[in-house]
Records
---
Amino acid sequence: MLEVTEWGRKDGLPSWLLTDWIEDRLGNIWMVSQGESLVRFDGHQFKTYGPAESRLERIWGIASDRDNNIWIVGGNAGE
């Protein structure tokens, strides 16, 4: 039987609107939330990285490479 768990703001997810996501080799789920935040879910809790941590005003996508590096595609206004 498939077990489904729903997470929301009360669990630390900053928004329901997720525009991109990947899973790294360690099992972490990386998500882009409303194009403004990068979110990591380790299976237990959410950690949000906002513009101050990423130094990006907008995040459009994420990817990982074979070395398990996480690549963020984004930019700032006027650039």
---
Amino acid sequence: MAGARERVRTDLEQRMHESMAPFDEKSVIGWAIQCCDVLSYLHHQKPPIIFRDMKPANLMLTDFGKIYLVDFGIARFFN
């Protein structure tokens, strides 16, 4: 379906607490790669943006396994 929107399901911290089993390796590697991609994008801005609050509660997960970084309240430009 064209234009379908992904629904943000929960933050990763909540998902960790709800899960009765470890996450599968393929999912974790995919999330890690997505986080690295976002951080690389932020660090290549002019001036670079430093995200200073990386934790599971600030990683939102969609139904399709896409990660969104949230809470840029203490993020800073690198001088």
---
Amino acid sequence: MFTSNQKHQLKFFSDSFIHSYAQMFFSDNRVFAWLILLASFVNPYSGLAGLFAVVVSILFAQWLGFNPNYTRYGTYSFN
């Protein structure tokens, strides 16, 4: 189904995505991050805009060759 490289990339992207939300409150707690993500969808347009911004910032950080560890922990994409 997925190759090892694809699994690694998917894990990297999902970690980067959820940590971006947790980093807004300087946290590494994944449950807290999911709660923040859900709360952002109280207004669907705000939730989608935030989701889009996080995805674009992660992809842009990868494209520019930024440090993958900082990308994974949401340092570049939390704001």
---
Amino acid sequence: MSTLGAVEEEIGIALPKGLKLGEYRILRAIGQGGFGITYLAEHVDTKKEYVIKENMPASFSRRDERTYKVTPTGTEMVS
């Protein structure tokens, strides 16, 4: 298994392969850090590849597994 394959398995909250975001389609998750997830995507018309960074701090948010919507997990506000 490639390193990228291992990363995809670790990122359980990542958007699924093939999901369309506007003019882009997710090809795979390529990394995850404290503040988000990085994806390899392609433009649906040009087929050119791009990197998309999703801001999703795991300690402050969660993803609905059915709708993929991200919501805050706590009620605390940062001022």
